[in-house]
């Protein structure tokens, strides 16, 4: 026996289906500059053989966020500029609970996806308005707002603050 539904119930049900199975975001363009970040793993949006590759301009296009803070590795207060981890994960439709972040020298840390919020961390690509060269912990550095709260001044958070970041894998 067929089930009859009103138009409003059909629209409501269609909305639930869209929430359960989100439509993929716009295709991720190819970088026009040097690749600084490669993301692999459980991704819904890619642009290169199952991975998502970014240049600095692509990261900038996600929205720039500044964190003004001191760090254990620099002297004084500095302004770090970058893209929020939250926005990067959303752009590639990451589906996982852990970000395995790896540096150029293969040093690796795990960052829980739950760390990604409106305020932190950012994947910084500029320090005091200038690109960060490799000799100065660049080109990318995971930065939390350390000075804003004691919750960011722990060994766990410091250990997640990987510099010379060039790869992330979503698990």
UniProtKB/TrEMBL annotation:
**Taxonomically, which superkingdom?**
Bacteria
Enumerate the spans annotated as Oxidoreductase molybdopterin-binding domain.
68-146
Membrane-crossing residue ranges in chain numbering: none
Q: Does the keyword Signal apply?
A: yes
InterPro entries according to UniProt: OxRdtase_Mopterin-bd_dom (IPR000572), OxRdtase_Mopterin-bd_sf (IPR036374)
Q: What Gene3D superfamilies does the entry give?
A: Oxidoreductase, molybdopterin-binding domain (3.90.420.10)
- Pfam families reported for this sequence: Oxidored_molyb
Keywords (alphabetical) are: Signal
Task: Specify the signal sequence span.
Answer: 1-25
Q: What is this protein called?
A: Oxidoreductase molybdopterin binding domain protein
